[in-house]
Amino acid sequence: MTTHNDLAGKKIKRGDYIVYAALWSRSAVLKYGVVSSLKEREVWSQRENNSVVGTLGVISVDRTWDGKWELQNHGKEITLGFLDRCLVVNANSVPREAVSLLASTFSQIER
Question: Tens-digit pLDDT profile for the chain (111 aa)?
């Protein structure tokens, strides 16, 4: 069974809010998301035995140029493949408008 831990070693669970590193054009940015699923993928290596690593399905938000929050990818799940580039955060560490969008979208996929 693959473990899903963030950069700090904290176990990642479905429904957790995370902050993760991403690129916007050529600039490094941080994004907020909610974990919608825990996944796995096989990694092939010539040097080591093939192994299975954890990945995450995430619903995320991004800020528009005028500072408003909007769902990324129209609220569809994206996959994050590098768990050491994210941190689990408390919901009150995420802007209210972003939490509102993420929570309502996550509750719709829960049904």
Answer: 678 999 999 999 999 999 999 888 888 889 999 999 999 887 776 666 667 788 999 999 998 889 899 999 999 999 998 888 999 999 999 999 999 999 999 998 864
Q: Whole-structure pTM over 0.70, yes or no?
A: yes
9 domain residue, yes or no: no
- Amino acid identity of residue 9, one-letter, is G
Task: Tell me how far apart the alpha carbons of residues 111 and 107 are, in angstroms, rounded to a whole number.
Answer: 7
Domain presence at residue 11: no
Residue with tokens 């560490």: 93
Residue 14: helix, strand or coil by DSSP? coil
